[in-house]
């Protein structure tokens, strides 16, 4: 049996010159936990060319969705950005990853902190009805340089709020906080600064960071992860994984090329 499913592209949407999302068919035997990633790619010259991608769709969705950058000289994304409905994408059969709710200790507030395409696993997690059972409050933060880069996340949240089933579940529970750093916007600044200053919580009319109740998931650039890890560890948060649950978990936003 091949290590990959051959899935058909159903829909492609280009959000900016450097960001796009696409959905594919999903083999019914492909099971994953919301927040996980798998290898995906294309067959190039008869060989698979692959990168790790988080599923942006939820595990109850019929199709798969992915959110990607377009790197002009990236071996995979330079090709992947040209896909169109009907094309075949390889999807690895073995999803994995640490950004799963089960790796966190119980708590009452879940902070999902992302930059760039690091939003993808959280797009999956906020579609999981289970997290609204486990947590009273969920705060989704997405930091980007420009407003245009927020558009995929804005759309995911808007669709969820308008969803017949999810709309009510989310109400009063999900706080979505998009922020940009390089042009004027209603929310400005890096996630690190927004947490340190307390501005994130004040703007959402929420209590300040609290080790006793807050559980955190981080996904973004290596620099963002390093700074946030240092910040949370200094406040007593312990990193969790499959064998030892903690107050926070980390995954880097994979696709850089
Ligand atoms: P900034 O514009 O101040 O660099 P990138 O595209 O470089 O990954 O950045 C995505 C977003 O993450 C930008 O808003 C960027 O802010 C921010 N960012 C970059 N480095 C860090 C960091 N070390 N901690 C927090 N946010 C960061």
Q: Strand-and-helix sequence, N→C?
A: EEEEEHEEHHEHHEHHEHE
Category by helix and strand content: alpha/beta
How far apart lie the N and C ends? 28 Å
Shape: globular
Report the count of strand segments.
11
- Residue-averaged pLDDT: 96
Strand portion: 25-35%
How much is the radius of gyration in Å?
18 Å
Strand order of the largest sheet: 4-3-6-1-2-5
Structure description:
The protein has helices spanning 77-80, 120-125, 129-134, 151-162, 166-170, 191-197, 199-203, 222-234, and strands at 4-16, 19-24, 37-44, 47-54, 64-69, 88-92, 109-115, 137-144, 174-180, 214-220, 248-252. By secondary structure, the protein is of the alpha/beta class. The chain is globular. The relative contact order is 0.17. The strands form two sheets. Strands 4-3-6-1-2-5 form a six-stranded antiparallel β-sheet. A five-stranded parallel β-sheet has the order 9-8-7-10-11, sandwiched between helices. Adenosine-2'-5'-diphosphate is lined by residues 115-116, 143-145, 181-182, 190-192, 221, 223-224, 227. The site of adenosine-2'-5'-diphosphate has 14 residues, from strand 8, helix 6 and helix 8.
How is this fold's topology laid out?
Blueprint: E1 4-16, E2 19-24, E3 37-44, E4 47-54, E5 64-69, H1 77-80, E6 88-92, E7 109-115, H2 120-125, H3 129-134, E8 137-144, H4 151-162, H5 166-170, E9 174-180, H6 191-197, H7 199-203, E10 214-220, H8 222-234, E11 248-252
Parallel strand pairs: 7-8, 7-10, 8-9, 10-11
Antiparallel strand pairs: 1-2, 1-6, 2-5, 3-4, 3-6
The structure holds adenosine-2'-5'-diphosphate.
Adenosine-2'-5'-diphosphate (A2P) is lined by residues 115-116, 143-145, 181-182, 190-192, 221, 223-224, 227.
């Amino acid at each position: 049996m091949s290590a990959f499913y051959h899935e058909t592209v159903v829909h492609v949407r280009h959000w900016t010159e450097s960001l796009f999302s696409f959905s594919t068919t999903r083999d019914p035997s492909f099971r994953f936990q919301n927040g996980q990633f798998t290898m995906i790619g294309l067959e190039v010259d008869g060989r698979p060319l692959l990168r790790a991608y988080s599923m942006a769709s939820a595990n109850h969705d019929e199709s798969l969705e992915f959110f990607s950058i377009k790197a002009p000289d990236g071996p995979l994304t330079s090709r992947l950005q040209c896909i169109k409905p009907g094309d075949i994408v390889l999807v690895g059969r073995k999803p994995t990853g640490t950004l799963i709710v089960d790796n966190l200790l119980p708590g009452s507030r879940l902070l999902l902190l992302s930059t760039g395409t690091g939003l993808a696993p959280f797009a999956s997690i906020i579609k999981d009805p289970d997290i609204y059972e486990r947590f009273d409050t969920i705060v989704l933060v997405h930091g980007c340089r420009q407003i245009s880069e927020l558009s995929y996340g804005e759309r995911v949240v808007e669709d969820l709020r308008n969803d017949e089933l999810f709309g009510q579940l989310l109400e009063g529970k999900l706080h979505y906080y998009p922020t940009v750093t390089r042009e004027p916007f209603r929310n400005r600044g890096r996630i690190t600064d927004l947490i340190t200053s307390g501005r994130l919580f004040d703007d959402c009319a929420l209590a300040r960071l609290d080790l006793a109740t807050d559980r955190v998931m981080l996904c973004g650039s290596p620099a963002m992860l390093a700074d946030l890890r240092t910040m949370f560890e200094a406040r007593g948060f312990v990193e969790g994984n499959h064998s030892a649950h903690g107050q926070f978990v980390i995954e880097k936003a994979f696709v850089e090329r």
